[in-house]
Design brief:
The complex is a heterodimer of chains A (about 650) and B (about 625). Chain A is an alpha/beta fold. Helix content of chain A is about 25%, strand content about 25%. Chain A contains 17 helices and 32 strands. Chain A has a 7-stranded mixed β-sheet. Chain A has a 7-stranded mixed β-sheet with strand order 9-10-11-12-13-20-21, with no helix packed on it. In chain A, strands 16-15-17-14-18-19 form a 6-stranded parallel β-sheet, with helices on both faces. Chain B has about 625 residues and is of the alpha/beta class. In chain B, about 30% of the residues lie in helices and about 25% in strands. Chain B is built from 17 helices and 31 strands. In chain B, the strands form 6 sheets. Chain B has a 7-stranded mixed β-sheet with strand order 6-5-4-3-2-1-23. In chain B, helix 3 packs across helix 5 and helix 4 runs antiparallel to helix 5 (about 120-130). The radius of gyration of chain B is 38 Å and the shape is elongated. Classes of the chains: A alpha/beta (about 650), B alpha/beta (about 625). At the A-B interface, helix 8, strand 23, strand 25, strand 26 and strand 27 of A face helix 4, helix 8, strand 24, helix 14 and strand 25 of B.
């Protein structure tokens, strides 16, 4: 059992598990933090961005000033943003049999894998994961494609050149592997390879392995996976939550008795309490609006936004915000809001009960109905007519590098009345803001990450008791900025095995048994013998058939009867074809009874001599000698086959066969 | 051999479904239906049949409900709250959502309107639903350690499911009602090749191979259109959920296309509510509706409006969808009474009607109906025939002049569909329920001919026993398996390789290990049985020359065996040892000592008989 680690990002994993002749990719996360090195893509011509000075090397050479621009002391690549792909060289990805997706954030690299590597397998994911994943990809492609950027910078990637650049560009890893965004046809092709699955559905892979998605409590349709054979169980835990938000609660019980538990996707902000952050979000929002300012919330079009809207639904009247318009701007805003209402079966109990009434599970339906929440595909079109300030805008992308959010940053950044509130934890907010500096607008950081924290992890591990834990190396040491916080790491016994990008781990396991089926006809022919109380044995001689990794034992075929007319005289001429194995023997021979038996069978001249280890039984006339010891019997005789066979059978009567 | 028992509590004829299955010691009740044709105790299944006097909870491991139609779930509150059952009840999410609403609706009609007693209460419906566990499609639900169930999509109505019930390697599939062709709002039933020991399938349309759906729809639209054109009123009695939505989509698109103005109504609040369920459970509808729902939700109708009682007397044409579907009570019956006397009007029965209902009567051609009524209807068409009735029960005769049309829109599989499902699932036995005896007999023959499987059709209360012959799963030690698969890399059909092992049976666990391991585990020593045979050979040559001759001879004969001549002068054939000594008295005779263990018995025995025949004369 081997684990190939293709991504170094702990919350956007991409691992490949080789297990019992199957090759299973676990998630397909796309590291988008690479985009922070690029300049934002403005929707309308931005004089500020276009006037940024080109970057000049210390020695005054200007050959990079077209590709790199400087803004408030930071250097950015002026090009279409690129993403850091999972490793594609560590193993031949065309050999991957299946890809298991745990949640919609962890499938963003899927088109790169399924469309570029010769992948011919199947992808498994739940319906909400696929639908919302599609929306995220659509939004991503849309926000990049709608701003055609002629320039595609590549000179800076040259190793010799990169060395000369300032941090963080200098330290960016694998820049040669960075890729531009995929296209919609590629997204569609990738998604067409997905097969939908439901929680607790058992999916057989080649008869060798069974995989099962379990509710992970983190997002709509998010799952952990069990990968097991009859004797081994690997749990893949990725992006799980024990908080009660909108999704179905996490299924912990099914993770028990794992041989190996692969643990990824823990909270990225282990020190922040999501509930407290939501409270801060609401109060900052209210304060800004009351003072006449606008609020910008950079966000993904699905996920936490549903919870935020629900909180606001309860909060706006009491906070006197009833007349403030809330705008949700995304090419997939409408779809996301609609889709959230139809996945009743994937929601927490309270929301499910609402659907039974029947009422929409999320209150944003009411916000839309009462015109408090309005959604638009983009800032162009209807939105520009309806736009009233002060207002609250939810829009993407949280990296602030593309999407409608770029426009609002440019529009509102100069006024200290306005506030941008960061709720998504995927990007450092300071890095995100860097190309907009200097800024007058207020910045509030309320990261809401509902995934497991280290206290919950240690409780979970105590509960489910895996034999071995495997996790990204980041989880085995305190965060670099808080090196004294030894509580912010995984603590378990035996200590976890850690992995980093491009590493191959050999996972410990001991497999001793395999399942085999005994056909009913064979089972009927077996003769069990009780050896000890409660323990019976039966010797089995059977034909083994193996097909599709399933083993079956059948009755051996009856030897073909030689035709009666063609009686062959010289049977012994035939060399025995195959060696029919004889059973092992056990037990010992009681000499007295043996002698009595011999006499009963017509041997009259039996003589017994004692030896140091046992006895010698002599049949004088037959010139035969039988040495009997505790664990052995030796028959020494003339070449008299009938006699030998007779003696053999008499001896066998006293022994047990195995 | 183990067996499975199936006892349909009530099923022959499409009255209601309630089937008891015993599989490998587990008892499962499939559906818990009510008979709509009866108004007395006969409407509920006879549960005393299950346990003569024991508690149902102790006897049954679980109850499974296939879909929300009352002939499949109508007796559930009676069963769980009045007879008494506290175990788990499984159904899909949409069924769990909709079923209590239909139950409550039916309770209202029966108790509040008809004044019947000995019926379940609203509270009982609520308490009953608390025992329900909702299941996802394809989710494997572990009822207990041995019993697992899995739901498959069945089409038919929103949330309808087929269920696989599995214990060890024995399994039963129960279809409930299903539809193998997708329609305007639902997809087609689908099951994988799960090879159950028994497939229990409904057979409502056992002999029908229905003409194309498109023709039926065109016919339906034509009739509605003609009636409306001549100023008539069309009554379509429907179940609140199911065909109602299908026909609404059909009429809505037709009205849109033809730009028709006559009003279409949907009776009672229940049906409006019903459309909400379809919107929220859109993932259970067909692919097309699911794909386009963001742009346009098919269950938001432009032309179809809520019905008000007073509208029935409005002049001019109209189309009304009214519940219930069999014209046995409620609004559809009220409207029917009002409109029946006018030959311009039309009633279209889009589904099956149970015997005893008004729907069934008019479909079988009856045009003079005796109705019981509590109020005197002022319409001159009513004819009072029995004034003398002491119970103030008025028997009215109603003459039906309106046109009566039957169009099978109910989404059951037809004979073709049933055969198709059998082909998909590949069952070893088939059992037909929920159909009419004669038609089932025909289908039974067809199934047996085409699939060569046994097909059963038990009567009510009759028990069918099906014998299964499951193979036995065993744990084989990997060492033994690898040893065997390593030897037999190239399987030879003609010479099958025998594998030898010892099966250890302990506390219901079965393990197959190598004999050596079995001995070791049991703490037993091996007993070695060895044979040494003296074989006399006439050969005047020197001992080592004789040995060489023997060696050459054996090597020539035993081509597939490892024959070796060792430096100490002995010969081995595999693990059999041959040594030569001179005869103590006769120098011309050599004695070969052939020694082997019991494990080499065949080869040892063969060697002695081979050597006994002497050496060939000419050995070079």
């Amino acid at each position: 059992m081997k684990l190939y680690c293709l991504s170094g990002h702990p919350t956007l994993p991409c691992n490949v598990l080789k297990f019992k002749s199957t090759t299973i990719m676990l998630d397909c996360g796309l590291d988008m933090t690479s985009t922070l090195n690029f300049l934002p893509l403005p929707l309308v011509q931005s004089p500020r961005l276009s006037k940024l000075p080109g970057w000049v090397l210390k020695d005054g050479s200007t050959f990079l000033d077209k590709e790199l621009k400087e803004c408030s002391g930071h250097v950015f690549v002026d090009s279409v943003p690129e993403f850091c792909l999972p490793e594609t060289e560590l193993l031949d990805l065309s050999t991957v049999d299946v890809i298991l997706i745990s949640n919609y954030h962890c499938m963003m690299a899927l088109p790169y894998i399924t469309e570029y590597t010769g992948f011919t397998g199947t992808v498994y994911a739940t319906e909400p994961t696929v639908q919302i994943g599609r929306l995220l990809m659509e939004e991503l492609v849309n926000s990049i494609e709608r701003v055609p950027k002629a320039q595609s910078a590549s000179m800076w990637k040259n190793k010799e050149v990169q060395r000369l650049l300032p941090a963080p560009l200098k330290d960016a890893v694998e820049v040669s592997m960075w890729r531009k965004c995929y296209t919609m046809p590629e997204v569609n092709a990738a998604l067409s390879k997905i097969q939908l699955v439901g929680y607790s559905q058992k999916i057989e892979l080649f008869g060798a392995v069974q995989v099962t998605p379990l509710s992970s409590g983190y997002a709509l349709g998010s799952s952990n996976w069990i990968i097991q054979s009859h004797y081994e169980k690997v749990s893949y835990v990725s992006g799980s939550s024990l908080l009660t938000t909108h999704p179905q609660p996490m299924d912990q019980a099914s993770l028990k008795n794992s041989d190996v538990l692969i643990l990824t996707g823990l909270t990225q902000i282990p020190t922040a309490n999501p509930d407290g952050m939501v409270g801060e979000f609401c109060s900052n929002l209210a304060m800004t609006v009351r003072n006449g300012g606008n609020v910008l919330v950079p966000c993904y079009p699905s996920g936490v936004i549903y919870d935020l809207l629900e909180c606001l639904y309860q909060y706006i009247d009491s906070a006197g915000l009833s007349n403030v318009p809330f705008y949700f701007i995304s090419p997939v805003a409408n779809s996301s809001l609609e889709f959230s209402q139809i996945f009743a079966e994937w929601l927490c109990h309270n929301k499910q009960t609402k659907v039974y009434l029947p009422e929409p599970p999320f209150p944003h339906a009411e916000l839309i109905q009462t015109n408090k929440l309005k959604h638009y595909p983009s800032i162009h079109g209807d939105f520009s007519n309806d736009f009233k300030q002060p207002c609250v805008v939810f829009t993407g992308h949280p990296s602030l590098r593309f999407g409608d959010v770029v426009h609002f940053m440019e529009l509102w950044g100069k006024s200290s009345l306005n506030t941008v509130i960061f709720t998504e934890p995927d990007f450092s907010y300071l890095d995100a803001l860097a190309p907009y500096q200097p800024l007058a607008m207020k910045c509030v950081y309320c990261p809401i990450d509902t995934r497991l924290n280290f206290i919950q992890v240690s409780k979970l591990l105590k509960e489910v008791q895996p034999l071995h834990v495997v996790c990204p190396e980041q989880y085995t040491q305190p965060p670099p900025t808080q090196s004294h916080r030894t509580d912010l790491m995984i603590d378990c016994q035996p200590p976890p095995m850690s992995y980093r990008r491009a590493e191959v781990l050999t996972l410990p396991y001991k497999r001793r048994y395999e399942k085999i089926e005994i056909m009913p006809e064979l089972a009927d022919s077996l003769v069990p013998l009780e050896i000890k109380p409660g323990i019976s044995l039966a010797t089995v001689s059977a034909v083994l058939h193996t097909k599709d990794n399933k083993h079956v034992l059948q009755l051996p075929p009856k030897p073909p009867q030689p035709p009666a007319s063609k009686k062959r005289k010289r049977v012994s001429e035939d060399v025995p074809e195959c060696k029919p194995l004889k059973p092992l023997l056990s037990g010992s021979i009681p000499v007295e009874q043996f002698v009595q038996t011999l006499e009963k069978h017509g041997f009259s001249d039996v003589k017994v001599e004692d030896t140091a280890k046992g006895h010698i039984v002599l049949l004088q006339e037959a010139e035969t000698l039988i040495q009997i010891e505790e664990d052995s019997t030796h028959i020494i005789c003339d070449n008299d086959e009938p006699l030998r066979v007779k003696l053999r059978d008499l001896v066998l009567k006293f022994l047990q066969k195995f | 051999a183990e067996n499975e028992q199936v006892s349909p509590l009530q099923n022959l004829d499409v009255g209601r479904s309630c089937i008891l299955v015993s599989i490998a010691g587990k008892n499962v009740m499939l559906d818990c239906g009510m008979h709509m044709g009866y108004n007395d105790d006969r409407r509920f299944p006879d549960f005393s049949y299950i346990t003569q006097n024991g508690r149902l909870t102790d006897f049954l491991d679980c109850v499974i409900i296939s879909h929300f139609h009352l002939d499949h779930c109508g007796a559930l509150p009676y069963f769980s709250e009045m007879v008494g059952y506290d175990g788990p009840i499984y159904m899909t999410h949409p069924t769990k959502a909709i079923c209590p609403i239909l139950l409550e609706d039916y309770r209202k009609i029966t108790v509040d309107k008809k004044g019947e007693t000995n019926f379940f209460t609203s509270q009982m419906i609520k308490d009953c639903m608390k025992k329900v566990v909702a299941v996802h499609l394809h989710q494997t639900v572990q009822v207990d350690e041995e019993l697992e169930i899995k739901a498959y999509y069945a089409g038919h109505v929103l949330g309808a499911a087929m269920f696989q019930i599995k214990v060890g390697c024995e399994s039963v599939v129960y279809t409930g009602d299903y539809n193998m062709t997708p329609d305007r709002h639902l997809g087609a039933a689908w099951i994988d090749k799960c090879r159950p020991d028994l497939l229990i399938t409904e057979s409502t349309y056992a002999t029908t191979i229905r003409d194309s759906k498109r023709c039926r729809e065109r016919d339906f639209l034509k009739k509605v259109h003609e009636t409306v054109e001549r100023g008539g009123k069309v009554l379509i009695p429907v179940f609140a959920l199911g065909r109602a939505q299908e026909l609404c989509i059909l009429l809505e698109t037709f009205w849109e296309r033809m730009n028709l103005k006559a009003p279409i109504y949907f009776s009672t609040g229940l049906t409006e509510k019903a459309n909400h369920y379809y919107k929220l459970f859109i993932t259970w509808t067909n692919q097309k509706i699911r794909k386009t729902f963001v742009q346009r939700n098919m269950f938001e109708f432009k032309h179809i409006k809520a019905f008000d009682r007073a509208f029935a007397d409005n002049p001019g044409p109209m189309v009304v969808f009214a519940t219930p579907g069999m014209l046995h009570a409620g609004q559809s019956l009220q409207i029917f009474r009002k409109w029946a006397g006018n030959e311009k009007n039309m009633v279209i029965m889009p589904g099956y009607c149970v015997q005893g209902t008004v729907g069934h009567k008019i479909l079988s051609g009856q045009r003079k109906l005796e109705m019981e009524g509590r109020q005197i209807v002022s319409s001159p068409k009513w004819l009072l025939i029995d004034k003398a009735c002491a119970f103030h029960l008025l028997l009215l005769q109603l003459e039906v002049k309106m046109q009566v049309e039957y169009m099978s829109f109910s989404a059951h599989a037809d004979a073709k569909g049933i055969m198709q499902l059998i082909r998909q699932a590949e069952p070893r036995n088939v059992l037909l329920v929920h159909g009419e005896a004669k038609k089932m007999e025909f289908l039974k023959q067809k199934i047996e001919q085409e699939f060569h499987v046994s097909c059963y059709m038990p009567a009510n209360g009759e028990t069918t026993t099906i014998f299964t012959n499951p193979s036995i799963p065993v744990d084989i030690s990997l060492g033994l398996l690898k040893r065997e698969t390593a030897i037999g890399l190239l399987p030879d059909v003609k010479k099958p390789k025998l594998m030898h092992g010892t099966l250890i049976m302990k506390d219901n666990s079965f393990r197959l290990v190598s004999p050596e391991q079995a001995l070791k585990e049991l703490g037993l020593a091996e007993h070695q049985l060895r044979f040494t045979c003296r074989v006399h050979i006439q050969d005047p040559r020197k001992e080592h020359e004789t040995v060489l001759r023997v060696y050459n001879h054996l090597k020539g004969v035993l081509k597939d065996y490892s024959v070796q001549h060792l430096p100490d002068g002995s010969i081995t054939v595999e693990s059999i040892l041959i040594q030569a000594t001179a005869h103590s008295e006769d120098q011309g005779t050599k004695v070969l000592l052939v020694s082997w263990t019991y494990q080499d018995e065949e080869l040892g025995s063969y060697l002695t008989s081979l050597l006994k025949k002497g050496l060939p004369q000419s050995t070079s």
